[in-house]
Amino acid sequence: MAFLPDEIDVLLNPTSVAIVGASENSVWATSMVANLRGLGFPGQLHMVNPRRDSAFGQPAFPSISEVPQSEPRASGRAGVSLTVQSIGGRDSDT
Q: Which of 11, 20, 71, 91 is the most interior residue, by most CB within 10 Å?
């Protein structure tokens, strides 16, 4: 499948980023937020973590479906269970 120019633009120039598994306890999430802020990312950063009320001084949403933009571009890394919960699925423990 070939990418269309608009699809490439959306991928390379997102207007928002959802950090799935956002937590100050996560080295990866801390680096991601610091890099995006430090490099002057002009878009919105949305913290997603079903186990936290806030992360990095911002409210944390329990799932991507609760982020108040129509199409956030998700980027994040967490344990499988937390990632599945964050995107609104069910893991084997529930």
A: 20
